[in-house]
């Protein structure tokens, strides 16, 4: 009979985590609560009869360290969506454990126990995980029989749904097995996040945000509201704002001349969460880049200037013609950058 331990979020889990690690190290199987019933964990070589196992990982860097190629969409989903009922399948060489037909699956189940177990078992090398489809720990243990030596019981869990399976490549992603994680949420989280940064987030960066949305929507033949579903989130922020201010009236006017709408814009301060989530951080001046680097060193992608090597002057306080010239400069450089985001 396997050892059975009851899970309680109010009890120190250190001993439970240690036993999980030691049991896996011995070559036996562990049953833990997951986000779609119970899951089984084991190391390669153990005789476990469960279909489509995944490698346990808690982020894209860990997946890459195991030898997998992690495309941008997979990296975004691993970083933004996990832990969740979401299996992410990426290209992989045949030597990687559990790979099949040129792909390997990764999984980070959405139960707080895994926040502790994943780093604790990292020293063991690859660990496989698969959903048993069972609502109780005992049912899962009986399914796996003598291979199980440790069971963590968290009571009856909802096993009616399966995790959603996404296959990601450099060309994008497809949902190969719909499941508990909504497709709409996957589209939102897999999108490329483009962040424009200026000082107060009322003049230049809102203009850049609005014009970039319009350019992308035109190129993709969709509306601005449909951009997240088409793979793009375009945002802006300021390095010196408390947030909540509307865009400058002149910015709204010249944006409208390009078909962009800034009427609902509200300024926001740049912060670490925005930078970490972003795929592109585009600043208006060198001083904005310095401010980001000083406050948030090594956080998110390396910022770059919208205008290549030149600063874009702040039009604040000037008349419409200065704003119009600013918009023309922004638009010209966005057209230059656009092919990086959308392949014609």
UniProtKB/TrEMBL annotation:
SMART domains: LMWPc. InterPro entries: DHBP_synth_RibB-like_a/b_dom, LMW_PTPase, Ptyr_pPase, Ptyr_pPase_sf, Tyr_phospatase_low_mol_wt. Keywords: Hydrolase, Protein phosphatase. It comes from the Bacteria. It holds the Pfam family LMWPc. Transmembrane segments: none annotated. Its EC number is 3.1.3.48. Residues 192-340 form the Phosphotyrosine protein phosphatase I domain. It catalyses: O-phospho-L-tyrosyl-[protein] + H2O = L-tyrosyl-[protein] + phosphate. It is an enzyme of class 3 (hydrolase). Belongs to the low molecular weight phosphotyrosine protein phosphatase family. This is protein-tyrosine-phosphatase. It comes from Gemmata palustris.
């Amino acid at each position: 009979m396997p050892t059975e331990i009851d899970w309680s979020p109010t009890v120190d889990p250190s001993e439970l985590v240690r036993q999980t690690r030691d049991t896996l190290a011995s070559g036996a199987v562990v049953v833990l609560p997951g986000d779609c019933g119970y899951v089984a964990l084991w190391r390669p070589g153990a005789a476990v009869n469960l279909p489509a196992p995944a490698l346990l990982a808690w982020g894209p860097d860990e997946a890459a360290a195991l030898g997998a190629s992690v495309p941008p969409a997979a990296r975004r989903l691993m970083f933004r969506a996990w832990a969740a009922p979401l299996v992410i399948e990426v290209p992989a060489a045949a030597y990687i454990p559990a790979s099949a037909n040129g792909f390997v699956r990764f999984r980070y189940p959405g139960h707080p126990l895994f926040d502790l177990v994943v780093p604790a078992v990292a020293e063991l090398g690859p660990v496989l995980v698969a959903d048993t489809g069972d609502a109780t720990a005992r049912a899962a243990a009986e399914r796996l029989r003598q291979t199980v030596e440790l069971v963590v019981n968290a009571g009856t869990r909802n096993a009616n749904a399966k995790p959603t399976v996404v296959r990601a490549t450099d060309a994008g992603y497809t949902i190969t097995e719909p499941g508990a994680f909504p497709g709409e949420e996957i589209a939102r989280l897999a999108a490329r996040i483009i962040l424009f940064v200026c000082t107060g987030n009322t003049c230049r960066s809102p203009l850049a945000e609005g014009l970039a949305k319009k350019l992308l929507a035109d190129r993709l033949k969709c509306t601005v509201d449909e951009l997240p579903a088409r793979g793009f989130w375009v945002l802006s922020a300021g390095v010196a704002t408390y947030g909540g201010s509307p865009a400058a009236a002149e910015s709204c006017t010249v944006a409208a001349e390009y078909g962009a709408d800034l009427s609902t814009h509200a300024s926001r301060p740049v912060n670490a969460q925005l930078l970490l989530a972003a795929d592109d951080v585009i600043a208006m001046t060198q001083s904005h880049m310095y401010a980001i680097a000083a406050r948030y060193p090594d956080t998110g992608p390396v910022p770059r200037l919208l205008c290549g090597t030149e600063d874009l002057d702040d039009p604040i306080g000037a008349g419409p013609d200065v704003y119009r010239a600013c918009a023309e400069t922004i638009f010209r450089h966005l057209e230059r950058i656009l092919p990086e985001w959308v392949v014609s």
